[in-house]
């Protein structure tokens, strides 16, 4: 429970949630710890009101349903995108609930899943049924990072076999993007400042790794390694420098996808729009992934084309997660940290 921004959260016992009419209560089986939770904790997210329970990368079992729920029943194993659409606004009607005008976001707009139970609103059209053979820890790790990467690479970046893809930042989002781009048959350049993360990137299939700490011209190095630049580039970190590098390392008519969040005083970076015009570059945002796109991703996981369990980092208790959360800005974690014990 966060009582004050930037003050260490506390572990407390609170009343169990009741299902809203349009929602369910899920007993949390596992929930990922993410940099977005850190941003929320320090006060960067205007959706959060205090006191607050974070947690948005969850998987678990439905234990209660609201009176308007028809598709889901007690005992169903589910996950949910971190953005749940209302189902009624123009964007939801057009099939884009990830940019709904009236979003429900567990752990942001409402209390989240760093808890034994979480209430999920707008559940009818936003829950995702989990295959029986997908365990909760792996399902939680799909959370926002893997699913967000999937949408960024597959839907927004439209990566095709034989193309070059650059991934700037090899945290959870970046490593997921590398795995997904390789599964599609692309060549991948991974960029980070951390040697261990670059090693992991190579193990996941990155063809070229670039240590940006010791490379003065990162964009030039990527262009040199890819015969003039990549077709698709992702800023998977969310920083003015990685964003600009990601645009500048594109080949003519290349596609930049902004996945990492740019927040606080970094949210309006100066971009090389001269290059965007002269080379007809395309810039895309990517924000989560709609529930209706999950089956495509889950099918690739089930046939082994994607192995999100390879991105798992440490498993911790809810109590231990407090240390992980407050240290998230130090980028100590390797892979995705998941809470799998709540007592
Ligand atoms: Zn909507
Ligand atoms: Zn997340």
UniProtKB/TrEMBL annotation:
<keyword id="KW-0479">Metal-binding</keyword>
<dbReference type="Pfam" id="PF08240">
    <property type="entry name" value="ADH_N"/>
</dbReference>
<keyword id="KW-0560">Oxidoreductase</keyword>
<keyword id="KW-0862">Zinc</keyword>
<dbReference type="InterPro" id="IPR050129">
    <property type="entry name" value="Zn_alcohol_dh"/>
</dbReference>
<dbReference type="Pfam" id="PF00107">
    <property type="entry name" value="ADH_zinc_N"/>
</dbReference>
<protein>
    <submittedName>
        <fullName>Zinc-dependent alcohol dehydrogenase family protein</fullName>
    </submittedName>
</protein>
<dbReference type="InterPro" id="IPR011032">
    <property type="entry name" value="GroES-like_sf"/>
</dbReference>
<dbReference type="InterPro" id="IPR036291">
    <property type="entry name" value="NAD(P)-bd_dom_sf"/>
</dbReference>
<dbReference type="InterPro" id="IPR013149">
    <property type="entry name" value="ADH-like_C"/>
</dbReference>
<feature type="domain" description="Enoyl reductase (ER)">
    <location>
        <begin position="6"/>
        <end position="339"/>
    </location>
</feature>
<dbReference type="InterPro" id="IPR013154">
    <property type="entry name" value="ADH-like_N"/>
</dbReference>
<dbReference type="InterPro" id="IPR020843">
    <property type="entry name" value="ER"/>
</dbReference>
<comment type="similarity">
    <text>Belongs to the zinc-containing alcohol dehydrogenase family.</text>
</comment>
<dbReference type="InterPro" id="IPR002328">
    <property type="entry name" value="ADH_Zn_CS"/>
</dbReference>
């Amino acid at each position: 429970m966060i009582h004050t921004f930037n003050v260490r959260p506390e572990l407390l016992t609170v009343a169990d949630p009741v299902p809203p009419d349009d929602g369910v209560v899920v007993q949390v089986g596992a929930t990922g710890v993410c940099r977005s939770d850190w941003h929320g904790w320090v006060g960067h997210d205007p959706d959060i009101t205090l006191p607050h329970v974070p947690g948005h990368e969850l998987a678990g079992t439905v234990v209660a349903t609201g009176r308007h729920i028809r598709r889901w029943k007690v005992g169903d194993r589910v996950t949910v995108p971190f953005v749940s659409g209302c189902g009624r606004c123009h964007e939801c009607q057009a099939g884009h609930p990830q940019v709904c005008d009236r979003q429900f976001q567990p752990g942001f707009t409402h209390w989240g899943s760093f808890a034994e139970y979480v209430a999920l609103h707008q559940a009818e059209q936003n829950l995702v049924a989990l295959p029986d053979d997908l365990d909760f820890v792996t399902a939680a790790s799909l959370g926002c990072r893997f699913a967000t990467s999937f949408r960024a690479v597959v839907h927004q970046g439209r990566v095709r076999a034989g193309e070059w893809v650059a991934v700037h930042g090899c945290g959870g989002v970046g490593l997921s993007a590398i795995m997904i781009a390789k599964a599609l048959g692309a060549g991948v350049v991974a960029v980070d400042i951390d040697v261990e993360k670059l090693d992991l990137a190579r193990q996941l299939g990155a063809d070229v790794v670039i240590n940006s700490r010791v490379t003065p011209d990162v964009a030039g190095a990527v262009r040199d390694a890819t015969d003039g630049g990549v077709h698709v580039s992702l800023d998977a970190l969310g920083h003015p420098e990685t964003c600009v590098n990601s645009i500048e390392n594109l080949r003519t008519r290349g596609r930049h996808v902004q996945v990492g969040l740019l927040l606080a005083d970094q949210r309006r970076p100066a971009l090389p729009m001269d290059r965007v015009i002269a080379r007809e570059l395309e810039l895309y945002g990517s924000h989560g992934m709609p529930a209706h796109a999950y089956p495509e991703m889950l099918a690739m996981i089930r046939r082994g084309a994607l192995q999100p369990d390879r991105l798992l980092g440490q498993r911790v208790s809810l109590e231990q997660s407090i240390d992980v959360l407050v240290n998230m800005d130090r980028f100590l974690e390797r892979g995705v940290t998941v809470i799998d014990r709540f007592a």
